[in-house]
Structures are given as C-alpha cells and as structure tokens.
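Progress against Task 2.4 (sequence-to-structure conversion) is shown through the following example record, which the project officer requested during the mid-term review.
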Amino acid sequence: MLWFFPMPKSSSNLQLPPPLGRDAALFLDFDGTLVGLAPTPEAIEIPPALVPLLSDLRDQLGGALAVVSGRQIDSIDRFLAPLRLPAAGEHGVQRRDSQGHMQEQRPPELTPILNIANELARVHEGLLVERKHAAIALHYRLAPQLEAVCRDAMSRAIAHDPQLELMHGKFVFEVKPAGVNKGIAINAFMEEAPFKGRKPVFLGDDTTDESGFAVVQPRGGVAVKVGSGPSLALHRLESPRAVYEWLVQARDLLAAPATSKTTDTESPRNPG
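Structure tokens generated for the chain above:
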C-alpha cells in the first residue's frame, strides 16, 4: 500500500505561526525543518547555535520538546549531541519518552525489500539505500528522473504483504510497518508528562508530517508547514532558516519576565 495523507489543493491562505506560549508542547521534525536538506542523510549541516537553542527551549517548556523524525533516534542524538531530547524515530517506530525510556517495534522481515532496493541502486546511478531499524528507505534525490522507477519497484515489492506500507517523502520512498506515523507518535507523547495538558505545536516540511498536523490542530494546537506545497497545516514558515529565527524569537520571549496585566491605575495604593 502506498501511504499518503489527503491534503487541500490550495496553500495560499497559510499564515505565520503565532508566538510560542509557555503552555506549549513543541514537536519538531528534523530534516528540512531544523536543518536544511542535503544530498545524503549524513551530509546535513547543524548550525552551531541550534543545540544550545533547543536546550534552552526544552528548559523553558518544562521538558515538553520532542523531535519527531523519519531518522533513527541514534542518528538524531549523534547530530544534536550532547543533547538527548524526547524523540520519535522512523516516523514513530521508535519512541523515547522524557524519562529516557525507549519503546521500539520489532522490525518486520525486510530482506527481500532490501535486496530489491540494492539491486535498483546497483543498476541505476544516483540511488541511495538506507537500512533503518524497521524500514528500508530508497533515496533518489541525486536521480529525480527515477521517481517512477523507484515507486513501481517498491510498490511491487510490498504488494502482497499487508504488514508493510510504502511512504513517499521528499525524494525518498520508504517501506515501513503499516499503521505507524508521526501523528500516532505525537498523540502518545501528549498522554505523558511533561506534554500532557499542554498545547501541541508541530513544525514539519514533508508529506510525512501531515499525519502530525492532522493530530495537533484538532487538539487546539498549531501546525506549521515549512516550505512550499499544499498542507493541512494552517501556518507556514518558508525555510529551516525561518524556523530557526522563529525559535530564537520564542526563546527570547519565554525568557522575558511575564508581563503583568495590572496597569498603574489598577495597582493598589500604598497605605497612608
């Protein structure tokens, strides 16, 4: 089954996200959101100030900040070291809560899928096969003309296995366990401290983030599409750079003393 999420045809009415509140539970995609996309997953560049920025925001939000990514959690940790945030990896196949406890689905049998993907990469220059804990990703960013070839081959590979589904992201087709997505992972976080009772805010750039948008908005939260393209999200930021600037603004606003709603004319008079 090819996995996708229904999206509106128009994206012209998306607005800038509101300032981040002290009651927020912040969920952040990684590639294309916190960091720019790169030719290969290992080629990304981490802005030097990103890790301390995320650390500050985590503390300001009482720990209610999580990375929700298609990457494996150990890859996220490696790029954000020494920071170890609550995280969902492989679109929710892996999940680490705020106490550091890891939940991980048993990987399905993926050897036939891996063999097919490796054969494609052998025959066609520019394809990259990524073996994850419970998924096989076939990247075609360096050979975008091969999209249909990759889709057809991977679709056929899972055609008779209902336990697997094919997900299409930005220049990647990924075979993963069926019934797993970022929305389910965010819902799980929202049932646990320190996220429970807070207002969910999720930023993501890809079609794989739409399931997360579909979860946070009905909860009264904020969904932010990063970059161009149609989306369920009602808000937009143009790029990872814009995300970084919005997060810096959020940190500075949260660091400021809470503004009193009491005006001078309403202040109690000094006795005598």
